Amino acid sequence: MAKNPSRRTFMKKTALAGAAAVAIPTFIPSSAFGANDRINAAVLGINGRGQSHISSFMAQKDLQVTTLCDPDMRLLKKGQAAFKEKYNADVAIEQDLRKVFANKDIDVVSIAMPNHWHSLATIWACQAGKDVYVEKPGSHNIAEGRKMIEAAHKYKRIVQHGVQLRSSPAVQEAVQLMRDGYIGKVYMARGLVFRMRGDIGDKGLSPVPEGLDYDLWTGPAQMEPFTENLVHYNWHWHWDYGNGDVGNQGIHETDLCQWGLDVGLPTKITSMGGKFLWKDSKETPELLTSIYHYPEQEKIIQFEVRPWLTNNEGGATVGNIFYGDKGYIVVDGYDKYTSFLGKDNKPGMSKSDGGPVADGVDRGLGGTDGHFENFIKAVRARDSSILNGPVETAHLSSALAHLGNIAYRLDRVLEFDPKTETFVNDPEADKMLTRDYRKGFEVPDVV
User: Fold this and answer.
1) What are phi and psi of 323, to 5 degrees?
2) Is residue 319 domain-resident?
3) Are 62 and 131 contacting, i.e. CB atoms less than 8 angstroms apart?
4) Is residue 427 part of a domain?
5) Which helix or strand (DSSP H or E) is residue 415 part of?
6) Any idea what the CATH number is for the domain that residue 265 is in?
7) Which of 140, 165, 190 is the last residue of a domain?
8) Among 159, 21, 169, 173, which Cα is nearest to 99's?
9) For the chain, the helix, strand and coil percentages under 3-state DSSP, each to the nearest 5
C-alpha cells in the first residue's frame, strides 16, 4: 500500500548524525494516523531481543516491518531470509541506522541495539520525526536519559520504553492494590535478578569478522581492538557497552520498584558485590547488592543480582517483593502476582495473565505484544499520555541501575540530589554521570 505523502511535511532543517555526516531530515506529522493507515516500521538491532520486536510489530494491525537494520551484514542476510519465509514478504536491509532515519517512508523504529547505543539512536530518531520503541535500559548513563526526555518533548515524539510488564493486567492490578492500601503502608521494595549466568571465558583479540561494520557497532564508545568477548551478546558485562545484569534484566525490576513504591530517584545509595565464581573477561560484577534510600518518603529499595544456583524468594527468582505493614505482594516475572496478609502470611489476592492470551488479547510472553500494541495506539492518537512505559520511565528506572553501579565502582556510600540529578559535593562521582563520546557520535544537547 502506498504511503500518503501529505501526512508528513519535509523540513529544511536537518541534523548531522555522526562521522559519515549523513543528514537526518526532521519531519513533523501534518495529521495523526487514521485508524486504517498502514504504519511502516524498522527494527534496529536484530540479534536476540530484536527478533521479539519483529514478531510483536508484525502482530499489530495495519503495520508492516519494512526495514531491518544491523551493523552485521551476516545477521541481516539471515534475518531477511527468515522474514521472507515466516511472513511471505520482502524486507529491506540496511547497516547504517542513519540511513534508516533519513528514509521518510519509515514512521516508527524500535531499538534493540547494545545499551551504549540506546539513547543516541532514540534522540536521532526523534530528530528525524520517527516515533520510537526503545529496549531497556533506555540509557547507558544518567545524563543520556535526561536528554532522551528532552528530545521526545522537543520533537513531539512518542517514545515507549521496553518494560513490558507495565502492560500486564496482573501487574497493573498489583500496583493498584498497593495504591489502595491493600497491604497497608508500603515501605520497602526488593528487586530480584537471580539468573544462571555462566563463565564466558576470554577469547582474546581477533580480526573483525567480514560483514561486521565494527565502527558502527562501536558508535558512541571509544574504539577498542575487536574481540569476540563483546559481539554479539557478552558486551552486557563490559562497562563501555553494557551495565551488568542490574542494567540488563534488572531494569524491569528497578522500574517496578519505583512504580510500586511511587518514587523517583533516591538521595542515598550504597552497593557492594564482585566476581566470585568465574575467572573470565567480564568486567561487571556477577553478584551485586544495592540499597536505595528515600528518607523523606520513608521508603527503601533493596536490589540483588545473584548468579548461578540459587533459591527463590516468595516463589520468584526474577521479580519484585513489596512489603507493607499489613502484608506483602510478590510479582513473579512479568505477568503475575500473589499476596500474603497478616503475621500468619494468609494467602490474599492473586492474578496471572494466563500466558500468551489474557482477556481475549494476544499479549505474547510477558506482555510484549500488548506493550507494542499500547505503543502503536499512542502513535496513532499522537498522545503520549496513553503510553504504559513513557520516556520518563526509560530515564528513571535506568538511572536507578546506574546509581547502584556507580556506588559499586567507587566503593562508597553516595549522596544524590534528585532535583539536579547530580551527586552532593562529589566531583568524582559526577564524572560518571556521562562518558567520553567518540567524535561524530556525541549525544547532542536538544533543549
Assistant:
1) -110, 130
2) yes
3) no
4) yes
5) strand 414-417
6) 3.30.360.10
7) 165
8) 21
9) 30, 25, 40
Spatial contact of 32 and 382, defined as CB atoms under 8 Å apart: yes
Distance between CA atoms of 150 and 156, rounded to whole angstroms? Answer: 10
The residue out of 165, 193, 209 marking a domain boundary is 165
Amino acid identity of residue 384, one-letter, is: S
Residue at 381 is within a domain: no
Residue 269 shares a structural domain with residue 337: yes
Q: Which residue has the cell 521526545?
A: 152
Task: Collect all residues with Cβ–Cβ distance below 8 Å to 350 and sequence separation of at least 6.
Answer: 336, 337, 338, 339
Tell me the C-alpha distance between 374 and 388, whole Å. Answer: 7
Handedness of CA 368, 379, 385, 433 (dihedral sign): positive
**Residue 174 contacts residue 403 (beta carbons within 8 Å):** no
In a domain, 222, yes or no: yes
pLDDT in tens, the chain (447 residues): 333 333 333 222 223 233 333 444 444 443 456 656 999 999 999 998 999 999 999 999 999 999 999 999 999 999 999 999 999 999 999 999 999 999 999 999 999 999 999 999 999 999 999 999 999 999 999 999 999 999 999 999 999 999 999 999 999 999 999 999 999 999 999 999 999 999 999 999 999 999 999 999 999 999 999 999 999 999 999 999 999 999 999 999 999 999 999 999 999 999 999 999 999 999 999 999 999 999 999 999 999 999 999 999 999 999 999 999 999 999 999 999 999 999 999 999 999 997 554 445 444 445 789 999 999 999 999 999 999 999 999 999 999 999 999 999 999 999 999 999 999 999 999 999 999 999 999 999 887
Question: How many CB atoms sit inside 10 A of residue 412's CB?
Answer: 14
Query: Which stretches within 308-367 are classed as H helix?
Result: none
Residues 349 and 241 in one domain: yes
Q: How far apart are CA 141 and CA 153, in angstroms?
A: 20
CATH code for position 117: 3.40.50.720
Q: Which residue is associated with the grid cell 518518603?
A: 297
CA dihedral 277, 283, 284, 288 (to 10 degrees): 40
Write down how long the chain is.
447
For residue 45, give its domain range: 5-165
Q: CB of 120 within 8 A of CB of 219?
A: yes
DSSP 114-166: -HHHHHHHHHHHHHTT-EEEEPSPS-SSHHHHHHHHHHHHHTT--EEES-GGG
Both 214 and 149 in a single domain?
no
349, containing H or E segment: strand 346-352
